[in-house]
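Worked example 2:
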Amino acid sequence: MEPIHAPHGTTLTCKSWQLEAPMRMLMNNLDPEVAERPEDLVVYGGNGKAARNWQAYADIIATLQSMDVDDTLVVQSGKPVAVWKTHIDAPRVIISNSMLVPHWATWDEFHKLEDKGLIMYGQMTAGSWIYIGAQGILQGTYETLAAAARQAGWEDLIGRFVLTGGCGGMSGAQPLAITMNGGVGLIVECDSARIQKRLDTKYIDTTTTDLDEALLTVQKAVAEKRPLSVGLVANAADVFPELLRRGIIPDVVTDQTSAHDTLNGYVPNGMPLEDAYALRKNNPAEYERRALDAITVHCKAMVGLQERGAVVFDYGNNIRGQALANGYQDAFKFDGFVPRYIRPLFEEGKGPFRWAALSGDPKDIWTTDEVILEEFAYDQHLVKWIQMAHDQVQFQGLPARICWLGYGERERFGLIINDLVKSGKISAPIVIGRDHLDCGSVASPNRETEKMMDGSDAIADWPILNALLNTIGGATWVSVHHGGGVGIGYSIHAGMVIVADGTDAAAKRLSRVLTYDPGMGIVRHADAGYPKAIQFAKDHGIRMPSLK
């Protein structure tokens, strides 16, 4: 099969840019520069797919190309099931991925249905067609590590040793995020091809298969206070306990292996990679048992490193939940990253805002970089990020960018982009979306909604309300998903994407959606009793009947 690449330029293959955009972004998700296993339709996260199967993918593309400008395509777990005549401000696509009735929301049930060809796992931005490569989580990782440094009493990570696991589609952002903060990272990844991909895209600096060599390299860079990232080809369940045994205690420890998925994501330790993959195929039950045991060993080592003085946090892969389910009662001795570092941003409607140039021309993204530097100059942290991203981030597939913007800022920036498209200063429409890891679009008790002030961690009304409101607002496509980065049974989340095509109609939709979307994050946190969110809602005129 020929590699998939999204069309570039301004020639439409669909009847409008509102239809062309989801088609190009779906294809971009499966570009070999972007996806982990495009031949299997897997974008990232072990089994996060863009379409259910190749027939479904072909049907989605053909349908988008044939649809009228006021049609809406309905996609059920990666399969197009209907086209309805709606109206010009309705979403062009609505998507639901891996939603299971709660009693049946288990991996076993999911795999039974998957084997029958009835369902797929959409992860977060894989099945909602807004993945932009490792950059998609890069700033979030950068922000989290910066917050970890500040909370520890450091200005940054200069001269600090950061240990983590995973170098795949999402976790591959970690090495660059570490060095952007000035730190020295040891990134443990069992698949050398994944590390090589990060070397090729300049996300990681060097690699080795020898732990002793890796540690010497890390120690030298720490002593010299020189930013450096080292990819170690090994299994984290072997390396983390070994460092603890040797008494080598990093300054910061986290992990982004795909521990949420014991079958397709995490690799058992104590065996060569090819043997593990053979076991996965021939005896999946035994593979999952060994993977779960390895996850538990891995988690125990993280707890041990914390007890020896390291700053340790869960980075959203449900490693603690998996270890607890396997009988390790101390799994939650270290915190999740959202309650520890990110929630204060969520209270102000801030979160990961991303955009991609449908033209394929990097100049269009560089134009938006200039807008950020001029229009948001008051935020020096944001300015610094954009300057670093411009200089250091290599595009994968369609040129794209991400930054964290809050309530009011998102609408303002979206309207500026729309005007630039209208004037021709940007050569083709821009797609605007976000990660599902956002302020008001997720219910995930082991991640985004962990330790909510009012105990509402598991209430999933909020992502559904977010999706409904974005649909009313006129987002170009809207999605709801089950599982995400933490696994079946552990989260419900929603995504939205909207196209700035330079028209007045798009401006109205942008204004609505980019207000409603972060606004629901403020409402969600104000309703939970967070004082900053309550005050923010009052100060910005967000009408909440419960607030007097």
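The chain has a mean pLDDT of 96. Residues 284-307 form the longest helix (24 residues).
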